[in-house]
Fold this protein.
Amino acid sequence: MNYENILLSIEDGIAHLRLNRPAKRNAVSNGLLQDIEAAFDGLGADTTVVVISGEGAHFSAGLDLSEHQVRTPFEVLQHSQWWHRVFHKVQFGGRPVVAALHGAVVGGGLELATSTHVRVAGRSTFYQLPEGQRGIFVGGGASVRVSKIVGADRMTEMMLTGRRYDAEDGYRLGLSHYLVDDAEVLPEAFRLARQIATNAPLSNWASINAVANIGDMSMANGLYTESMAAALAQSSDEANKRMQDFLNRKKG
C-alpha cells in the first residue's frame, strides 16, 4: 500500500515506518496521523517488530500548526481522542515498537515517541513541550505518557517554560533508553529490533500490555495480574521448549 506521508518497508518480519514530511520537519498533520493508523492496522501477523524514524533532519516537530483551526470544544475533544486512538495502537498493538530519534522530538512528536517501547536517540535530539507558548494544551497523550516518564512536576515545568532538553538530558530523564551518535541511531534501532524479534511472541505481548496496565492498578490487583500474565507466558509450549533448551545447554 502506498502512503502520502510515510514510507513503509518490511524485511524479515521487521517493519520500518518512516515519517516522510521532511520539508515540514515531519510535523504531525491529519494526513500523517491517518497514514500511521492505516499502516499499523495493515500490518500482518508475520510482522513482529516495528521501527519508527523520521526522514530529514528531525524525527517530528509536533503538531502541524498550519492545519490549526478554530474548533468547537466537542470537535477538539474528538480530534484529541483520535490522536489517543492512533498512539494507543502504537503502544498496545501487540508488537514491540522501537523509535529512532534525532533532531526535534517536540510536542506531538514527543507524544508519538513516548508511545513506543524502546527509544534510541542521536546526539542531535532535543525534546520540548511548547504548547503553553502556543496557547494550547497537549492532546495526544503527553499528560499520561510523558508525565509517567519524567514526573508530573517536571512536565508542568516543561509546559510552563517551554524549556528544551537536549539529548543528554533526555537520556538522563528516561525520554530515551539509548544514546548514540546520529549515524548509529538506525543501526542500533534495528539491532535492538532484531534482538526483540527473537523473543517469544507471548513474552513480548505480556511485556507490552501487562506492565503498562499493572502500573495503573492497586498493588493487590497488580500482583494478581502479574501472576496471570506469568501463568499464560510460562505455561506455553514455546516457553517450555526454550527453558529445556537452556537447561540442556547448561548441562552440556
About this structure: The first strand starts at residue 6 and ends at 11. The beta strands are 6-11, 14-19, 49-54, 97-101, 104-106, 118-122, 126-128, 165-166, 178-180.
